Amino acid sequence: MTSTLLRAALSGAAILCVATSAFAQDVTLRFQHFVSPNSGAPIYFMEPWVRKIEEDSGGRIKIEMYPLMQLGGKASDQYDMIRDGAIDGGWVVPGYQPGRFPETEALELPFMMPKSGELASVAAWNFTQKYLLDDFKDVHLLAAHMHGEGLVHKKGAPLELMEDFQGLKLRAPTRTSTLLLDKLGAVPVGMPVPAFPEALAKGVLDGGMITYEMAPSLKLDELTDSHTDVAGDTAFYNLYFIWAMNKAKYDSLPDDLKAVIDRNSGLLASQWSGAAYDLGDEDGLRVIAQTDNAIAVLSAEETAKVKAVGDEVVNDWSAEMTAKGYDGAALVADVKAMVAEAMERQPWIDTRGASAAHLSEDRIR
Question: Which Gene3D superfamilies match (predicted)?
Fold first, then answer.
């Protein structure tokens, strides 16, 4: 499927509307997430997914989607809010609670995932099925996915050398990215997405790690001056998400409505989520390309130096997990094998090129 057609499908333009007024709404579900509704994940996955559920159910399921934590709590509270029934479902970053879901960090290790969020999400779903179902047994799992290429957005000139990380105060989205930045000589600051723009505006940070997809909604085109990615097909860092529902609420649905949820869950929804990020990355980079901001890619030589530091993080993490009673080496090896298998798939859209390739309009097929 071409990028243009997928964009239309994911945004709902290609989905035929059905008349729902003739049907009683058997259930209304309240879902919550923590980002702007104008960012890629809501536009290309969450809202179309809601419409698909509502249409497939003949209007018997209605889903109310609340962005920016409008129902309360912090982004790190999402899993417990879903588990406890404070909300019926939503988006969770397990890594926002460091130490609680330790095996998930295998997916977030540096240079572990492809830059295609879609293909990374195939690996994430398969890893989740093998290792993480017990971790998430208190909720009903709908999807598990990764975002696309994670990179460094900062004030001032772009990064050119590994040494340029020295002393920079950078937002770190995960524990593993914190370990990486620390080894690179930066000053990592753990911070969820909603706090990032204010920290930049107040001068608390020099920059941070996040996707292009989030750049417009966070005003990174205004708050930062440069955007630096690593060379190659693997991402500097990545973030693992789950899309989950309250278990009791799911269990209370009649079988035919459970089937509607089930048909729109699993690998399909996971791949869809990752593809939504890829489309969002294209949108975000297009916005940045219209500014005077510098868009840069580290040289292959400097990327190799950074990756060598990343390999140290992987080895340290593996040893740490083994000391905790896990098989750290096996977790790393399985992620690599699942990524290799996922890379054999034909993605819905091809977003695996270096960042500079996204600047060409003719690549949006």
Answer: Bacterial extracellular solute-binding protein, family 7 (3.40.190.170)
